UniProtKB/TrEMBL annotation, chain A:
UniProt keyword list: Signal, Transport
One Pfam family hit: SBP_bac_5
InterPro entries registered for this protein in UniProt: Peptide/Ni-bd, SBP_5, SBP_5_dom, TAT_signal
Family: Belongs to the bacterial solute-binding protein 5 family.
Protein known as: ABC transporter substrate-binding protein
Residue intervals passing through the bilayer: none
Domain Solute-binding protein family, residue spans: 81-427
PROSITE patterns, alphabetized: TAT (PS51318)
Taxonomic source organism: Acetobacter conturbans
Domain of life per record: Bacteria
Organism phylogeny: Bacteria, Pseudomonadati, Pseudomonadota, Alphaproteobacteria, Acetobacterales
Stored PANTHER family: PERIPLASMIC BINDING COMPONENT OF ABC TRANSPORTER, PERIPLASMIC OLIGOPEPTIDE-BINDING PROTEIN-RELATED
C-alpha cells in the first residue's frame, strides 16, 4: 500500500520501476571532471528569445532557462518528478498540496529563497500581460499562499495526484519575488547569466553558490542558435560548437563517420493528422477509421524519419511510457478496408476538404504527400495545401477539417490527457468529446493505487485509439549531435538534450580525441 | 551664379522627394503589417494561444484598438522622437536596431572596400580589352559566380575551409572577435560570399558602361587627335562614366545592408536583415517599422547621393 503522504518517496519507487525502459548510451567508466567551456547550437532563436520562464516556448528558451532557474520539482529521464527547490511535498486529498522549500537556497543576487518568491512565481502566470505559456495549467490552482517562510500551500480546483509533474515544467521555474525585468536572469540555478542577447547568444557561468553540491561539471556554456540545417551541422564538424540540437536524420551517418556522437532519445513527440469530428467528413466515424487505415506507417517511418522513430498507434503515449497500453491492437495499413469504408459512405465520389500541412509542423508536408499518394491509389482525391510556417499555429492549426499538428513530449500522461483530449481541453485537436473519457480522467486524478490508475489509463488510451480523430503514425526519436570530448549525455523521455536540462549533467573530457585515436584500430 | 542656384534647387528637390518617399514607405509598412494574418499576441503565445489568453494579452498591449487609432498613437510618438518599444522584449527599438545596424554596416563596409575596386578593375580592363580571351574569361567567370546562389557559395566555403581544412571558423560570431587576426578569420568567408554576388554584377555593369563610353564620338575624336590610350581613359572616359558607375555602386551597397539575410543566417552573423525577418515573424510592429525605416533611408541616401554625383558631374562637363 502506498503512503498517501510524502509523494516524493513514491516518485523514487517509480524511478526504480521505470528506469530500465530507456536505452542508455554506451557507458564509459571514466570519472566526470570539473571545468571546461562548452558551446551549444540550438535550432530556433530570434528576438523573441526570453529569460522569462513563463514565456519560454522554444527549445532554445527551455535550455537557457534550465541553466539559470530551478523548479520546485524536476522531471527525471523517465519523467518522474524528483525534488528540487521543494525538498518535500505532501497532500492528503491530492487537492491541497503543501510544498516544503529547501532552506538556505540563494538567488544569484544573494537573496535567500522564501515562500514569497514561490507564490509570486506561480501566481503571475494568471496575469494576461505576462503571456504565460502555461496559463491554462496555472488556472487549476485556485489559491497559492505562503505558510511560513519555507512553506507553500496550493489548493487546486479538483484533486490531481499528478500535480507535482505540472510544476516540473520549465515554465513554472521559480524567480525572485517582484521580478519584472528579464534583461538578465536572477534564479537559483547552477549557472549565472553573464550575457543575454536575444537572437544572438546567451552566456552562462557556473554559480559557485548552487544549492546542489553534486553534479554540474562545466565552468561555462555559450548557447547560440543556427536555424540553417547545414550550417549547424558544419559548425559541429568544424569544431566551432561542441553540441548541436536536432540532427537531421539524413546526416546521422555523416556525423558518426566523422567521429561525432549522435544521441538518440525516444520521446513522446509526434506529428499527427487531426480529423475534426465537429465539422466536415470527420463527423462520420467510418471516415476517420478509413484514414487511419490509409497511413502506411512503415513507409512514413522509412522515408520521412529514416527509421529514427517508433510506431504510433493513434493514441498519444509513446511505447516507453510507463502507462503505455500494450494490449491495444495496432492500427494497420489496410487500403482495401479503407476503400470499402469510404465507398460504403460515398466519400470516393465526393469533393473532400484539403489536407492542411506546414513546415511549422515537423515533416507534415512529407507525411501529407505520402497519405495523398495512398489515397489516390484507392481512387480517393485528397488535395494537399501547404501553409506558411509563419502564423501556422494561430491561423491554421485546429481551424480546418483535416489538419496536421506537431506535439512535443509532455511531462506526464495526465497532462497529455487533460490538455489535448478532455472535452474541455484547449488543444483537443480533433474536437473529440467523450464523457466516459472525462469521467476516467477525474477518476485517475484521485486514484493513489498505481495498478488501478494504470488500468484507468489503459482504458483512456483505448477510447482515444478507437474514438478520437487523431492519427499518430509515429513517435519521433530526437537526435542530438556532440563532439567526442562531451560526456555525460543520456537519453531522456522529455525530449532533446536530456529534456533541455543537459547543462547540469555534461562534462568535458579534454583527452577524449587523443584517447580515441590511440585506441582506434589501424 | 545662376548655375549654382539651379544646382541647389535641383538638390533640394532631390532631398525633398526622398523625404516624401520615406513618409510614404512608413505609412505603407504600417498598414501592410496591420493586414498580416495574426498579431504579436498570437505570435507570443504560439501553440498556447487559447482565445481568452490572446484577447487578454491583446487588450493589455492596446492591440484591440482600431488600426487608425494605433496609427495615430504611433505617429504621435514618432513626431516626439519616440520610436517605441518592442512589443516582445519591451526594449527601445531604436537601441535594438542601431546595435544590429552597426554590425551590418561593418560587414557591408568591409565587403565594399574589397569588392568595389576589384569589380571596377575587372569591368574596366574587360572593356578595354574587349573581345579578347581575357574579356571572355572574365565574362564567363562573373556570369558563373552571379548564377550560383549565395547559400551554396557560403555552405561550400564553410565545408571546404572549416570542415575539411579547419582553416577558418564556420561561424562569424561577433563576440569572438578580439584581434585583427580573429577579425580577418571570422570575416573572410562572409565577405567573400557577399563579394561574389557584388563583383559579378558590378563588373559586368562597369564593362557595359565603359564600352558605351569607349564607343562614343568624343573618344573617337580623341583617338583621331592621336591622344595616348591612358590619356583617353583618364581624361575622356572616366569623367563620363562616374555618374552611371556610382549608380551601380549605390545599388550594390543598399543590397549589402538589407539583402543579406542568407549570409547572416549561415554564418550566424547578427545583422539588421535577420532582425527585420525576426520582427516580422514575431509581428513586433514597432521593430518592423524602424527596420523598414532604416533600409528605406539607406536606400534613399545612396540613390540620392548617386543622383547628386550625376548632377555635379554633368554640371562640371557643361562648365568645361
Amino acid at each position: 500500500m502506498l503512503s498517501r503522504r510524502d509523494m516524493m518517496k513514491q516518485g523514487a519507487l517509480l524511478v526504480a520501476a521505470g528506469g530500465g525502459a530507456l536505452r542508455s548510451c554506451p557507458a564509459r567508466a571514466a570519472q566526470p571532471l570539473r571545468g571546461g567551456h562548452v558551446r551549444v547550437a540550438s535550432t530556433t532563436g530570434s528576438l523573441s528569445d526570453t529569460l522569462d520562464p513563463a514565456r519560454e516556448s522554444m527549445a532554445t528558451d527551455y535550455m537557457r532557462g534550465a541553466m539559470f532557474y530551478d523548479g520546485l520539482v524536476t522531471l527525471d529521464a523517465t519523467l518522474v518528478p524528483q525534488p528540487a527547490l521543494a525538498e518535500r511535498i505532501e497532500s492528503d486529498d491530492f487537492r491541497t498540496w503543501t510544498f516544503h522549500l529547501r532552506p538556505g537556497v540563494q538567488f544569484h543576487d544573494g537573496a535567500t529563497l522564501t515562500s514569497a518568491d514561490v507564490v509570486y512565481s506561480l501566481r503571475r502566470h494568471l496575469d494576461p500581460l505576462v503571456a504565460s505559456q502555461v496559463r491554462f495549467q496555472a488556472r487549476a490552482m485556485r489559491s497559492v499562499r505562503a505558510d511560513g517562510p519555507l512553506g507553500v500551500v496550493i489548493e487546486l480546483d479538483a484533486p490531481n495526484i499528478s500535480f507535482p509533474s505540472v510544476l516540473g515544467l520549465n515554465n513554472f521555474a521559480i524567480i525572485r519575488d517582484g521580478t519584472k525585468n528579464f534583461e538578465t536572469a536572477n534564479g537559483t540555478g547552477p549557472f549565472r547569466c553573464a550575457a543575454f542577447q536575444p537572437g544572438i547568444r546567451s552566456l552562462a557561468v557556473r554559480n559557485p553558490d548552487f544549492w546542489k553540491t553534486d553534479g554540474v561539471w562545466i565552468d561555462s556554456l555559450e548557447l547560440i542558435s543556427i536555424s540553417d540545417d547545414m550550417a549547424r551541422h558544419n559548425a559541429l564538424l568544424s569544431g566551432d560548437v561542441d553540441i548541436i540540437a536536432e540532427v537531421n536524420p539524413r546526416l546521422v551517418a555523416l556525423l558518426r563517420q566523422r567521429g561525432m556522437g549522435v544521441m538518440e532519445s525516444p520521446t513522446g513527440t509526434y506529428t499527427d493528422l487531426a480529423i475534426r469530428q465537429d465539422i466536415g467528413p470527420g463527423k462520420n466515424p467510418e471516415f476517420v477509421q478509413a484514414i487511419k487505415h490509409l497511413f502506411n506507417r512503415d513507409q512514413v517511418a522509412d522515408s520521412v524519419w529514416l527509421g529514427f522513430c517508433r510506431l504510433g498507434n493513434d493514441q498519444p503515449l509513446p511505447p516507453e511510457d510507463r502507462y503505455y497500453n500494450h494490449d491495444l491492437p495496432q492500427t494497420v495499413f489496410d487500403p482495401d478496408r479503407a476503400k470499402w469504408l469510404l465507398n460504403k459512405n460515398g466519400f470516393l465520389n465526393q469533393e473532400l476538404p484539403p489536407l492542411i500541412c506546414s513546415p511549422a509542423a515537423n515533416a507534415s508536408v512529407d507525411i501529407a504527400v505520402l497519405l495523398q499518394n495512398e489515397a489516390s491509389r484507392i481512387g480517393m482525391k485528397l488535395d494537399v495545401r501547404r501553409m506558411p510556417a509563419d502564423g501556422y499555429w494561430s491561423q491554421s492549426w485546429m481551424h480546418f477539417p483535416l489538419g496536421f499538428g506537431n506535439v512535443n513530449a509532455r511531462g506526464s500522461a495526465d497532462m497529455t490527457f487533460s490538455l489535448a483530449f478532455a472535452s474541455a481541453a484547449p488543444w483537443n485537436e480533433s474536437h473529440w468529446r467523450s464523457s466516459r473519457f472525462d469521467e476516467l480522467l477525474a477518476l485517475s486524478r484521485r486514484e493513489a493505487d498505481e495498478a488501478k490508475r494504470k488500468a484507468i489509463y489503459y482504458e483512456m488510451q483505448t477510447l482515444i485509439h478507437d474514438g478520437s480523430g487523431l492519427c499518430i503514425p509515429n513517435f519521433i526519436t530526437s537526435l542530438d549531435g556532440y563532439h567526442q570530448r562531451i560526456r555525460g549525455l543520456r537519453p531522456h523521455l522529455g525530449g532533446h538534450l536530456m529534456g533541455n536540462n543537459f547543462s547540469r549533467f555534461i562534462w568535458v573530457d579534454e583527452n577524449a580525441g587523443a584517447r580515441e585515436t590511440e585506441s582506434a584500430p589501424a | 551664379m545662376t548655375m549654382n542656384a539651379a544646382l541647389i534647387r535641383a538638390l533640394l528637390r532631390l532631398v525633398g522627394a526622398s523625404l516624401v518617399s520615406l513618409v510614404f514607405v512608413t505609412v505603407a509598412v504600417f498598414f501592410i503589417t496591420a493586414v498580416l494574418p495574426g498579431d504579436v499576441a498570437d505570435a507570443l503565445l504560439g501553440q498556447a494561444a487559447t482565445p481568452d489568453a490572446v484577447s487578454a494579452l491583446r487588450h493589455s498591449l492596446n492591440l484591440d484598438k482600431p488600426v487608425l487609432v494605433r496609427f495615430v498613437i504611433w505617429v504621435t510618438g514618432l513626431l516626439h522622437g519616440d520610436f517605441g518599444v518592442s512589443l516582445v522584449s519591451h526594449r527601445p527599438v531604436l537601441a535594438m536596431a542601431s546595435e544590429r545596424l552597426i554590425h551590418s554596416l561593418l560587414l557591408a563596409g568591409v565587403t565594399a572596400l574589397f569588392a568595389v575596386p576589384v569589380a571596377l578593375l575587372l569591368g574596366t580592363t574587360a572593356a578595354i580589352f574587349r573581345n579578347t580571351l581575357f574579356d571572355r574569361a572574365v565574362s564567363l567567370l562573373t556570369l558563373c559566380i552571379v548564377s550560383v546562389p549565395e547559400f551554396l557559395v557560403a555552405t561550400l566555403a564553410v565545408f571546404i575551409f572549416s570542415v575539411q581544412l579547419h582553416l577558418l571558423p564556420a561561424l562569424a560570431s561577433i563576440s569572438d572577435i578580439h584581434s585583427i587576426g580573429s577579425f580577418l578569420a571570422s570575416f573572410s568567408m562572409p565577405v567573400t560570399t557577399l563579394a561574389c554576388v557584388i563583383v559579378g554584377q558590378m563588373s559586368r555593369m562597369t564593362r557595359a558602361v565603359m564600352i558605351d563610353a569607349l564607343g562614343s564620338s568624343w573618344v573617337e575624336m580623341a583617338v583621331l587627335k592621336g591622344a595616348s590610350p591612358a590619356h583617353i581613359i583618364l581624361r575622356h572616359v572616366i569623367p563620363n562614366v562616374i555618374a552611371p558607375l556610382f549608380n551601380v555602386i549605390a545599388l550594390s551597397l543598399s543590397y549589402l545592408l538589407g539583402g543579406v539575410v542568407i549570409v547572416e543566417s549561415v554564418f550566424h552573423y547578427p545583422g539588421i536583415a535577420s532582425l527585420m525577418v525576426d520582427s516580422v515573424a514575431a509581428r513586433d510592429i514597432p521593430l518592423v517599422q524602424i527596420c523598414a525605416l532604416i533600409f528605406c533611408a539607406a536606400y534613399l541616401f545612396l540613390t540620392t547621393l548617386a543622383d547628386i554625383v550625376a548632377l555635379l558631374s554633368s554640371q562640371r562637363r557643361h562648365a568645361a
